[in-house]
Amino acid sequence: MNDLQQLRFRDPARAEALGEAIHEVCSEIGRDPITLMHVCGSHEQAIARFGLRTGLPKNLDVIMGPGCPVCITDLPEVDEGVALALQGVKVCTYGDMLRVPGTSLSLNDAMARGGNVAVVYSPSQAIEIARKTEEQVVFFATGFETTAVTTAAALLAGDVPENFSILSAHKYIPPAMEIVATMPGSRIEGFLAAGHAAAITGSGLFEPLARKHRMPIVVAGFEPLDILAAVLELLVLVRDGRNEVANLYPRCVSAQGNLPAQKILWQVFELEQGWWRGIADIPDGNLRLRDTYAHLDARKRFDIDIKKLWSHAPHELAAQCVCGDIMAGKCQPTDCGLYGTKCTPDAPVGACMVSSEGACRIWQQYGGRPDLSEVG
Amino acid sequence: MGETIVRKEGAGGKAMRRLIESVFVEGLAKPVDGIGLAALDDGAALRVGDRHLVVTTDSHVVKPIFFAGGDIGRLSISGTVNDLAMMGCTEPLALTCAVILEEGFKRSDLERILRSMREAADEAGVTVVTGDTKVMGRGELDGIALNTTGVGFVQRPVPDNGLRPGDRIIITGTVGDHGFTILTARHGLALEGDLRSDVAPINGLVAAALAAGGEDVVAMKDPTRGGLSSALHEMGGKSRVGILLREPDLPVRAEVRAASELLGIDPLVAANEGKAVIGVRPQAADRVLAALRAHPLGREAAIVATCIEERPGNVILDTGFGKRLLAEIEGDPMPRIC
Ligand code: SF4
Ligand code: SF4
Fold first, then answer.
1. Cα distances (Å, whole numbers) of residue B119 to B76, B146, B314
2. Structure letter (DSSP) for residue B67
């Protein structure tokens, strides 16, 4: 049995030992900074919640990438949902999406103007709602491959009522990692991949990315020790110049992943080029409904005119939001002039302050990233 | 600040402090001989001869009004007795009680509430000496609101700003019990185990700490709304020290931990109604701790934090894995629980 499977995941003594090993490898590498990126809001939460950064060497920078599905949902995608809601269609979506600003309105704003919006916890709940009404019901589907599987499964479960359709804003992570890693000026030397997502797609999926871009990738779980062990492993790969994929979350992730889930996913969705909010146009970054499911595609059913939606300029404050640069690893929340003053969890300007998995919100919740190494 | 009052401005966090400072302190406070409104302590302490008269008042609204471990009646007595105790007054002279009822409120519920007020008052060794009753129309009030005021004398009032670097902070028992009891009741969550409010008058417990620590007890606060986090931010901010809080030393009941993971709310920000945060000089810490643990209400007391020179006004949480700043909450994640 793998060593990792046996250890207790919240054992400070083990954490200290991992911390020491991390320091050692970092000084062997010797560069300043060594930059690693993780791509999961839950990773950032655990790192912030447990204060893991204070124990890391000064020349190691663990940054957060495009790791939150709410944050990377693009403005026009929100606009589409808003337009439908204002048209009287019942738009069902996950709670976090309500406050995410579109170009000029959020779904919350739409609701305040009489728009028809409902919060659901799953696509099947939205289907339930559709069954009980004559109204047109649209499920505004957001999230990465993990949640896309749920959406696909709900559609395949059959017996989908005629007044139900999907507005897919689902995204696919691997191509986004590639884009971010190859952006000009990128300092990223390795990735921590999200354990949940990898549980579906399998760690093997990252092999080509690692080889092609000479970028080691380690699949990591979410407990403090999972993360520290994964950081150490990644540093060792960086030090040794091994552009490999390592799976440090074997209790949930296998090389080939969850095959039945993948089958469901690709049966319903296919990859398409798409914008990730503030980051880039990403080839193969979006998941769109296959033509076989065109009859369930809200975009086809309602003929939404995106161009018309784009005619609004984003309001003044939103123009200053740097969420995109944060998610691309180019800057951090405190670099944003609005952080903590004009943009707070209570009154968010950008998506990163809305979502509980957003970088700005996490920094607010856990007191930012001050240097506390000398304290106490 | 907005044109109208919003709910979070009554929730015990930063927003409430801003409201009180900007509206009440400016509008009402005149300097007094002793501790007045401007100090924003748990109550006032007014010099009378060689003693201090301590006065405190508190209004109570809670939903549900009956909950595991207590009810609004017990809460209203405990809250005021505890506020007096936090000023060092552990033998209150008397309480007053005003009741505002909504038309349609059940007589039997009112009787039950008064019975439990009586019980709590007996536990605290205090009497209610005067009161007032008003009834409002349906919909003008949510059931019942209680206001209690307490008075008593004390030789040496204990402020909440007397901390210095090196001082230790003791919590008298597990944190978050009341907040999570109310919260799970409201969310209709049925959780395993025995989650119940800690609401109780703790003047006896505080008296034991004061007897053991004497002048070395330098600051006290009850971690009600905003929980331990708010209490520490306030004490540290007013005393101009940083506070290093060790999470692994923090007593938290397993039920509260479970509910906390489920709801994503930190026990550190959840209200307590039968606990005290006590700041003591280092040499007295063990003595005070032993005295607390010998008392039935303080068996799980623990030394959880140390005051430091760095980062005055901030609370630094040592998680056992690393350190981070404990962010002071804006409003309460659990509005209107006390
Ligand atoms: S969906 Fe799961 S894996 Fe993906 S970012 Fe969120 S928590 Fe991480
Ligand atoms: S602080 Fe607000 S406005 Fe600035 S980047 Fe974050 S979410 Fe955007």
1. 12, 16, 39
2. E
Task: Tell me the C-alpha distance between A235 and A33, whole Å.
Answer: 12
Q: Nearest CA to CA, how far is A163 from chain B (Å)?
A: 32
A251 touches chain B (CB under 8 A): no
| A15, A356, A376: residue with CB nearest B244 | A376
A144 contact partners, CB below 8 Å, separation of at least 6: A69, A170, A171, A172, A173, A197
Nearest ligand to the C-alpha of residue A324?
A: 2
Cα dihedral A24, A25, A26, A30 in deg (nearest 10): 100
Of all ligands present, the nearest one to the C-alpha of A277 is 2
Q: Is the CB of A65 under 6 A from ligand 1?
A: no
Q: Whose CA is nearest to atom 7 of ligand 1?
A: A42
Q: How far is B210 from chain A (nearest CA, A)?
A: 28
The pairs formed by B194-198 with CB atoms below 8 angstroms and a separation of 24 or more are B194/B68, B194/B255, B195/B68, B195/B253, B195/B255, B195/B256, B195/B259, B196/B68, B196/B69, B197/B67, B197/B68, B197/B69, B197/B70, B197/B273, B197/B274, B198/B69, B198/B173, B198/B174, B198/B272, B198/B273, B198/B274, B198/B275
Contact yes or no for A55 and B322 at CB 8 A: yes
Task: Say if A45 is an interface residue toward chain B (CB within 8 Å).
Answer: no
As a residue count, chain B comes to 338
Asked whether the CA dihedral B274, B279, B280, B285 is positive or negative, the reply is positive
Respond yes or no on whether the N-terminal peptide bond of residue A345 is cis (omega within 30° of 0).
no
Q: Are A77 and A169 in contact (CB under 8 A)?
A: yes
pLDDT in tens, chain A (376 residues): 344 443 457 788 889 999 999 999 999 999 999 999 999 999 999 999 999 998 899 999 999 998 888 889 988 899 999 999 998 999 999 988 998 888 888 999 999 999 999 999 999 999 999 999 999 999 999 999 989 999 999 999 988 999 999 999 999 999 999 999 888 888 999 999 999 889 999 999 999 999 999 999 999 999 999 999 999 999 999 999 999 999 999 989 999 999 999 999 999 999 999 989 888 889 999 999 999 999 999 999 997 766 665 555 566 777 889 988 998 888 989 999 999 999 988 888 888 998 888 999 999 988 888 888 777 7
Ligand 2 centre from A189 Cα, in Å?
26
Backbone angles phi and psi of B57, in degrees to 5:
-140, 150
In DSSP notation, B102-149 reads ETT--HHHHHHHHHHHHHHHHHHT--EEEEEEEEE-TTSSSSEEEEEE
Measured distance CA(A63)–CA(A234) in Å, rounded: 14
Rounded to whole angstroms, how far apart are CA atoms A176 and A170? 13
- Pairing, β B302-308 against β B44-48: unpaired
Which pair of structure tokens corresponds to residue B276? 């005290």
Q: How many CB atoms within 10 Å of residue B194?
A: 10
Question: Do the Cβ atoms of B197 and B67 come closer than 8 Å?
Answer: yes
Give me the residues of A, 278-297, that contact B with CB < 8 A: none
Contacts A50 to B, Cβ<8 Å: 319-322, 324
Cα A189 from chain centre: 20
Q: How far is the CA of B293 from the centre of ligand 2 (A)?
A: 47
Q: A346 and chain B: CB distance < 8 Å anywhere?
A: yes
B168, B282 contact by CB (below 8 A): yes
The Cα–Cα gap between A206 and A164 comes to: 35
Which tokens hold the place of A118?
């409902």
* Cis amide prior to A370 (ω within 30 degrees): no
Q: CA A87, CA A106: separation in Å to the nearest integer?
A: 15
